[in-house]
From TrEMBL:
Gene3D superfamilies on file: Vaccinia Virus protein VP39
One Pfam family recorded for the sequence: Methyltransf_23
GO molecular function, one term: methyltransferase activity
Region listing for Disordered, in residue ranges: 1-45
UniProt entry keywords in alphabetical sequence: Methyltransferase, Transferase
Entry keyword annotation includes Nucleotide-binding: no
Protein name: S-adenosyl-L-methionine-dependent methyltransferase
GO BP: any one term: methylation
Length: 302
């Protein structure tokens, strides 16, 4: 049902392959004010691979850039572009649009970018350096959960859009759910540390589950659409191969988040090697049916 609905909504298929194109202009490294983002801000190495794998896992599952029925956009903004994978696909899918990728970390120098893609370095905790009602599309994925007072961003994001433009807001509900039984002590111990750490940073790791309500109550959009993708930790939980793959990627990706917090913040981040081992044992337990839900929304500005 999900796949046929998606085909109906948008026929164009986003291509995954990055072709040869001019290299991204190298960005002078700039000091960005402290933010709650817990992971390395450099988009090199392990963190870069983690983000790219997630992007490609999602793209393989969706088979398109977005379900929003976007037509002839001229200005597209991605806030929190990470490795630039989504922005490159947007620039390729809409070659006559100008795409701006924005992040506090520069795009990787090795990225094969496109002539209609530019990068802007910024901190989203500060006012956006754009005129109101500039963009036809604003995309923000896995970023809102790292911003304090996320509810305030709905109005800020809406103000960037032209009337009729699309806000593509996407996040996980960073909570493991088990369809069949209570969560075990390993996951509980990890969550105690992780949630406390995120709470101390003033951010909401469960914001994904609130997106639809936040968008609806803002009264800034004529339509608010959402799909929820269950990312299973146990491949036996689903027969859908793309979902199995996405679940596997998510599992290793969130493991990377915990390792990142452990490395960057140390024991005060609430995650120790022992806690991590307990978590790993439980998420890999073939008797369990654990999943994390990914919430993808697309909303049309009034
Ligand atoms: C989890 S990554 C997601 C990257 C990309 N959207 C994706 O889906 O692969 C979060 C990104 O948000 C950026 N970020 C987090 N907080 C930020 C802030 N306050 N200002 C600017 N960028 C921020 C990080 O640098 C990182 O690239």
């Amino acid at each position: 049902m999900f796949k046929s609905a998606s085909r109906r909504l948008m026929g164009s298929q986003a291509t995954l392959a990055l072709g040869r194109a001019p290299k991204a202009p190298s960005q002078p490294p700039k000091i960005v004010e402290k933010t709650p983002y817990p992971l390395p801000t450099s988009s090199r190495g392990v963190e870069r691979r983690r983000l790219d794998d997630m992007h490609h896992g999602i793209a393989r599952y969706l088979k398109q850039l977005t379900f929003a029925p976007i037509e002839n956009p001229s200005q597209i903004l991605e806030l929190g572009s990470g490795t630039g994978a989504w922005s490159v696909e947007a620039a390729r899918t809409f070659p006559s649009a100008e795409v701006i990728a924005a992040d506090m970390s520069p795009l990787p120098e090795t990225l094969n970018t496109l002539p209609n893609l530019t990068f802007k370095q910024m901190n989203f905790l500060e006012p956006f350096p754009f005129r109101p009602e500039t963009f036809d599309v604003v995309h923000m994925r896995f970023v809102l959960m790292h911003l304090p007072q996320p509810d305030n961003y709905i109005h800020r994001l809406a103000s960037l859009l032209r009337p009729g433009g699309w806000l593509l807001l996407e996040d996980v509900n960073h909570t493991l759910l088990d369809a069949n039984r209570p969560i075990g002590p390993g996951v509980q111990a990890l969550y105690r540390g992780y949630r406390e750490h995120m709470h101390n940073q003033g951010v909401d790791p469960g914001v994904g589950a609130r997106l639809k309500k936040m968008l609806e109550t803002s009264k800034k959009f004529t339509e608010v659409n959402e799909i929820v993708i269950p990312c299973y930790m146990n491949p036996n939980s689903t027969e859908d191969l793309a979902l199995q793959e996405l679940g596997e990627i998510l599992k290793y990706s969130i493991d990377g988040v915990y390792v990142g917090i452990m490395d960057k913040v140390g024991p005060t981040g609430g995650i120790t090697p022992e806690i991590l081992r307990g978590w790993r044992k439980e998420v890999n337990d073939p008797e369990r049916d654990l999943r994390i839900d990914m919430h993808l929304t697309w909303s049309r500005k009034l």
